[in-house]
User: Fold these one by one.
Assistant:
Number 1:
Amino acid sequence: MMGPMIGRVAAALLVLTGAAAAWAGNTLVAAGQRVAVAKSALTVAPASEWNRLGARPGRQTETWTLDGDPLNDLTFYGGIETGRPLFREVAKRTKPLPHFSSTMLLTDLPALFEQSYRIALDTPLVTIDASEPASFLGEKAVRFRYGFTRQGEEVKRQGEAVAAIVGGRLYMITFEAPSIHFFGRDIGRVRDLVASARLGA
Amino acid sequence: MMHRLAAWLGAMSCILSPVAAFAQEKSASRPGFAMAPGACILLFRPDISVGAQSTGGIAEPNADWTQEAREHLDAALGRAQQGMGHPIVTAAAPVGEAAAALAAYRALFSVVADSVIEYQFFPGNRLPTKKRAGQFDWTMGPGVAALGQGSGCGYGLFLLTEDQFGSTGRKMLQIVALMARVPVTSGVHKGYAGLVDLRTGELIWLNADRQMGGDVRTADGAAKRVAQLLEGFPGAVPVPAGSGQ
């Protein structure tokens, strides 16, 4: 029983050592400048300072925060390709994440997000509370609100997302924060930032 | 979404860089803060959980241990109050919606404290906006004022302790892993104490450590834990010898 466990621990350590080496550290995002995000053509112009986290949820994603991602998590998905999950797999063999497909309808995207979160957070406590047509990057889009509670935590979080499929790729911006104080305090500046988003400089 | 990965990397960085881990701050207060003399502090019911840690690292709550810890910690807190330099009012146990609100804010306090540890105290993962000289800018929001209504207190004190004692299997795994030069921790002994301005929700002092000492299931251990939790408390005064501490 012990042998396989030690092997798993050693393997995890090797992966983490590599991940830590590739970790670029957190950097300041200055106010008033247009910046490219998620290693993609997606650009935004923040009106206030943010912190860009060095650790990324996936290859084509990037997270910004004001006080740490448990308190305010703004994540950019910069052109997820068909056949790819929204973010890095957590247990590919036992609980694989659903994949984005360019044939999806906008109305399929909230369900893709919900299912991905349920698996990644290992909790059934993820809900899509509302969904409506929107405009994003000059394209037809879907805006949806969601809520979730993490395993082992009692903090209820609210989220808002806007997503569009452009050229067969998924572009999305999500914002989530505790329902108490943080979501209400920050959602206004997030909506302004989302309104500034475009593809290219 | 990023929370789990960042926390994991932060924890691993501590293991991989012991020097950095020891250099980590454990306490901070809002710059320029000075509590008015005689200002009373509302002590919320401490959030206490004690259990075991399975071989695989899973927490297994133990109600008996938690009850023992609560009795010992309550007694130790009672004795420690005379050294805190301000009148302490123990908040009445709320019921109904008020109980739900307190539970929600206690949970939020835990998350805010975790963020302070991860993004300000831990140098390797500090946020650029949080590492400016002399800065300690954290809040729980002005809604926290509702918890203090009718108390007459301007400040609220949140306390949290979480202990998971490593099972025999976990300790064996730790020894075997040590021989394989793989770091595996056994046990969790977390303690957070935070003073909040009940008018604004600003966190004005935090003492938070994920490796506190003292076996909270015993009277001596609980006294040690309380002393660690309240170390550096704003306005604290030395307790005279023989006061029962």
Number 2:
Amino acid sequence: MNNDADATLRHADLDTTRGSRLKGPVGQPVVSISNLSKTYDSGFRALKDVDLEIRRGEIFALLGPNGAGKTTLIGIVCGIINATRGTVVVDGYDNVTQYRETRSRIGLAPQELTTDSFESVWGTASFSRGLFGLPKKPAHIEKVLKDLSLWDKRNNRIMTLSGGMKRRVLIAKALAHEPRILFLDEPTAGVDVELRHEMWNLVRALRATGVTIILTTHYIGEAEEMADRVGVINDGELILVEDKTALMRKLGSKQLTLQLQSRLDGIPDSLAAYDLELAADGHELIYTYDTTAEATGITRLLRDLKQTGIRFKDLRTKESSLEEIFVNLVRERR
Amino acid sequence: MNVYGVRAIYTFEMSRARRTLLQSIVSPVIATSLYFVVFGAAIGSRIAEVEGVSYGSFIVPGLIMLMLLTQSVSNASIGIYFPKFIGTVYELLSAPVSYFEIVLGYVGAAATKSLVLGVIVLATAGLFVPLHIAHPLWMVVFLVLTAITFSLLGFIIGIWADGFEKLNIVPLLIITPLTFLGGTFYSIDMLPPFWQKVTLFNPVLYLVSGFRWSFYGIADVGVGASLAMIIVFLTLCLGVVAWIFKTGYRLKA
């Protein structure tokens, strides 16, 4: 619960430093998706009655396997794809009937590296700002390009850039009109490790200025690192939306690994009641337990081990990662 | 009205033309010069005056129309087809611009480019033959209306096309033949009566005829009919564009 309280505090601090471009307090829904469905002309049902609320000022990670409907969901919110059914309300405005209001608040960095090869980095970012209805502001474009380590390349044609740079050009374009809500579809695909950390810092800095961020990713470590909340989508259905820490607490199992003093050939019958397995050729004993259960059973296990005469020289515990949680969730559904 | 958005699209399209200056300007000028050499000098010297105008001068309005139609269509169709092809259209669709503003940006830029070309072709023609413009104001009206109408047509083709082949097929198989058979290089009086009747179904005839009238005061069909035809065509294109955006045809899934 401490984490939640911290988060609320942090958001409250932010609210006072923020401009008044968005209505309503932090933590309230800024994007409300209701009953959203999409059936493509081919008959493929990409989204099935999705309900989702994105809170103001949060980083929301949307996870799911390929073809789960992540990009379709983002496409509908941003106006690129027509919904078959359902509504999307952004900051109090309907995204179809009041599209100017909603779209001017949203920035989108798409998954595909789609860029105008012959344009310069500076030119394409300035174009985006104009397209979104804002007058020129070179100082802002300069800041965005510097934040994304693109300043040295500002006069280069996009075709001369590497894949990771093109990815950042797309993010620069999305930020050119100072959006309050940012959609990042696979933002770090093809970006090297060092730059990935830089981009994470950039995303956090954006959030600190009050920008709401929705990102999709294949790197679960990224969601684990960045997100306040996590949504899992599979086969067009939103199967779970949870606070990240709560999710990891709830679904996470922990493992206790004991390094044994002498090798075991098998698990003794007296310990059959425990969820145990042998590893490292009998030199390690792994106990998997549920962190949410009333008793973890560790004390009892250690006592029983002693009675059985099994001695250990070291021990360590490990939490399951979001990746394992995610894989388990998706597998359960199949 | 998102004025900055329209300006961004318009400027982007115009700068695209600047990057391909050679292809955009030089090639039409060379093509026009070739037409003058072949039709004006080589063949034209054997053709007597057409309705009191020397053959070389007679073909100038037709040549300008030929350039205007083909360039408007190709400029506008590539302008919107390319973002679709490379995927950058996502930004256009996610931006707070109305359909009207998108059309204004793309069609405005394409029409501007072909108008500039029309003037260049006119100036080039002036180097070869004496020119006389009887109704300059009407000339501008025909020029502008035609550029807009065919840029709209190009825009429609660019949206409809899902490959480069389709992008080229309409200009190649429809626009060019209609232009050549629409009295660009001849007066329809020169045709046998049957083909005169057939030609009357060619919309381009009305454009060329009205445009030629603004130069020399001679026309195959009435000026009113020419104007009416352009306006019908313009309305038709506007209707199709409105339908495209209403349904999201080939733009939105």
Number 3:
Amino acid sequence: MGFEVLLKGNNFLRLLLGLGVSLRISVISVLISILAGIFLGILMSTDKPVIKLFSKIYLEVVRIMPQMVLLFIVFFGATRILGINISAELSAIIVFSFWGTAEMADLVRGALQSIPITQYESSKALGLNQTQTFVYIIIPQIVRRLIPLSINLITRMIKTTSLVMMIGIVEVLKVGQQIIEANRKVSPNAAFGVFATVFLLYFLACWPISLLSKKLEKKWEI
Amino acid sequence: MNTNVIFTYLPEYTEAFVLTIRIAWLGIAIAFGVGIISAFVLYFKIPTLSAIVKIYIELFRNTPLLVQLFFIYFGLPRIGINISAETCGIFGLGLLGGAYMAESIRSGLDTVSESQIKSASALGMTRLQIFRFVIFPQAVSVSIPALLANVIFLLKETSVFSAISLMDLMFTAKDLIGLYYNTVECLLLLVVFYCLMLLPVSIIGGYVEKKVRFGMFGV
């Protein structure tokens, strides 16, 4: 079946290291997206027309452009148009952060707008000042709504990092291909075993996270 | 920027565009089919089948399409299952989409409260009538936004087909960039064609979403 290839030498370790590359890119992008997304989301929930227009265009671009196209634009386009040379990994991080920030900002905005105005009014009636209202009333509610959704964003980010092999980053799929190529003569069926393993590795990376997200969502249901 | 180049490339892009759309819509149609069946299996809690459906949904929701395609296209032939790139693309998209559609439809079905179903049966409605007149209209209006988001997501996912050497938009762009180095023009065309494919869906989707929102009673 081709699984035996993985037991030869350090092939399996190489696959895991490849997965590590994908995970590293996604963790960095997730951190940037969450921070930038919270900031942008708060900005977007204000009613300034300029910000509204800008955020609408930004969100629509992210919504309809495949991440792969964005990757190509940054990786191939930037060199050509701006004359700067961006490494494949950096362009992947730029694209995923650009995409993730939009998603996160939209989540933050949605969460902020989902808090009914009565919450603000009641806390005012109770004599809380604005900082107290935010710290004790609004933020705890928003965090409960946001955490499951942003955890979900992390799994999507991990899944999307599989695209980076298309711009030449050596990650788990590429390592898999290399192993298959190197063992073409000895085990011709390696493709099945290796890709099945990659499939499972991705599943094992994402499944616990999405389970956690589901569990928290249920626990904090309002 | 060279406008002549753009016109010379147009036919190739159009061809790729047609191929992408064909695969995308066939895949999405399969996704809807698989999704509806899976959602029903889960909703009516059919034994054993619903365990299988659960595993299928978790497996396909938690792995990237690229990895699924590699497995189907390069892996399966090694154990004697040969499929062409196009069929692989259609089924890959269909299976991935099915898992997402199933979740969206099921969550729509779940919003219809138990008491409504009980009241309907107290009024003497048959199971089929309950489904047709009580559950279905409410579930549809709840799931439509999620289903539309899935359609857009699946249309975007078609961009990975180039990895299994289907001559889609992405493949054409990469190919032409490699051959003639007209990077800017190729990327511009790529963006324009993806806009052509996705903007209408996004705009119509927004309109439909507004229309059905009024149907959300009792939610």
Number 4:
Amino acid sequence: MLFNSLHFLLFLPIVVGLYYLLPQKFRWILIFIASCYFYMVFVPKYILILFLIIVIDYFAALTIEKVNGRLKLFYLIASLTANIGLLAFFKYFNFLNENITTLFSLFGKDIHPINLSVILPIGLSFHTFQSMSYTIEVFKGRQKAERHLGYFANYVLFFPQMVAGPIERYETLGTGLKTEHKPIYQNFADGFRLILFGLFIKMAVADNIAPYVNQIYAEPLKYNSLRILSGMFLFSFQIYADFFGYSTIALGSARLLGINIMDNFKTPYLSKSVSEFWSRWHISLSTWFRDYLYIPLGGNRVKLPRWSLNILIVFLISGLWHGASWTFVAWGALHGLMLLLERFFSKLFNFGIKEGWTLINVLLVLKTFIITSFIWVFFRAESFEKVKEIFTALLTNNQAVEKINVVIPLVFVAVMIFFDILLYNSRFDKKLATFKTPYRWAFYTVILFCLMALSGTQKFTFIYFQF
Amino acid sequence: MLILILIGLNFIYDATLYKKDLYEKCEQVVEIRKKQDSTDIFYFAESSNFNTRESDSIQYMISEMTGMFFPSLKLTSINKPATHAGIYKVWLKNISLKRKKPKAIVVTLNMRSFDAAWIHSNLETQLQESMVLTQPYPNLVNRFLLSLQAFDNKTEEQRTKEMLDDWETVKLVFPFDFKYKTVRDWDVSYGQYGWDMPDSPEKNKILLTCHYIKAYAFNLNENNPRVKDFDEIAEWCNKNNINLYLNLLAENIEYADSLVGKELVFLMRQNRDYLIKRYNKNNCVVVDNLELINGSEFTDQTWTTEHYGYKGRMIIAKNLANSLKNQFSKEYIKAY
């Protein structure tokens, strides 16, 4: 089910209403049924994959807790292999085949492996990572294994964040699901604010930018350099508004049920460096990689060459996590490379970033935005051929005559920048709570009008659903 | 408080953006509202009305030719390609009867619009989208529903599946023995199923034959969604005492017979008779053009359409004018 659908806007109040009417001991059943229904609206049969993940990790965690020594590690590896195996089967099988075929063809061998003709189960990368974090935490002894299969199932299935995160830890979401929540006014107020804002960001901002980006990326060679540049920058805002919008609605929906989930974004385009960008963009994934890959690899406590390698490994895998394509790997690699360069230059010039909005910091923000926008090209383009077309058009197409009016999306970009500045180091619901009542209602009114009257009219699913 | 705000916002939207949005999504409704005060007869049509042959010496639309028989009446045509009764009924409801009631309404009755391929056509999504802003809710709510894609917004795959299901499961009924029980069976008997087929010397002929089967092999009954739509149109006109003319378009019976055979022609005639029997009552007249046009007068010779050369358009316009003459005998002149 899409958040930006009438279906969801009817589904959510029903679930919230029933949730508070039911006694606590039955609520998990409601959340379970609602989450299954939410997921089955996409492709019903894929719920079985989720059930499989739930069963594997539920029993794996219980066993890990019971046993010691090598056996403990064995069960963890078995659980991780099962999770990654499922992900690999559905997401990377054909990719692997393509690469093996190419590799063989380099040696003059023509092979035809069988390709899978299945649609990638929606949000599979998110479920598996969330579930894996649980078994790892149990293995490390930081989390007690959940005895109640229903609660654990809800941790994996929880509908507000099941298909595109945030990737939650059991400690927070699991506890939230088990705690009895009363219908508190503040939760409703915050929840509605966040949902309103999230829908606005997705439907009015992202969906009004999307058609222009799609047009430019469809045939980049038809457009001149300036328009290609605007297309690149517009995509930066499209994907931000799209994913930030989704995460905000997820946050708001969970809040209506009294459950807190983590912030996935903190005004990432106001970052002064690429490393700061990664502490503000898709935070739940960044922290996942930090905790379960970067730190086990040695983190910061290793020598520079090893640290550089660690960074590259993390970002290459992060790129691959996003999609089974070399363009995603390149996207991750470039981010890793930028981090290494940043560290190199800051050491070379002994350059430290200071707080506050000085001219230097504004320039650094612009620099970071331009770098990330250029790297987004690899994320958005479906092939290296397209990447080449984009950069060829950017560098040489000064005479192209095809026109595209980017005024409307630029207006929405301006709106997005306004909100980023307003919400710097804050969140919409918290910020709005500091406004006096008339100003707050004025804000609601404007946002509501923009949402209802100016939202895009084409169907664009959330970009991150494909992962 | 929220309700007050929504009422205010709806007022602002009506006054500012609504007209622009409506024009973008459904310019036909804007046209109806704009022209209804000066209109005596509305002519609602799909592409049959305006599609002409480039080589035609006369390029007039069917509606324009019909209008020539009634020079003192204002006949306004509202056209949209691939449209059908489900859309016409929405157009009708946008005629404000408080302002001025049209004297008559002509609606094209396209035989193919009842078939599974048209009912489950991929164009349907866009047609349904175009209707959202005309729903009987506040305009701001309609605009929001449009953004939420709250209309019959099935994917291409879903629609194709429904079409294939219909072809496979809906039984064809004949009063005589006929070996093919479904569209699929009939289609497969020509060595093809679906829209594509491998190359062969006979490919084009087989493709066309199969198009005829898919387009016309069905038995009309009250469960057909288009029949339900026409029922609503007839009922609306009857209730509002407006004369309705259902202009049953000509089909290429000649090719249907030579390519497929008498069984298909039987179904076409049977369906025509069903429509006449169902709608030729009260203030509704079915104008039967089904067999009026020769095969060569159809502009598309490799596809099933209701696009005619100028002679064909003239014949249909004249036949329609003859029916309208009963109501507008004083205004009628012999145009040709």
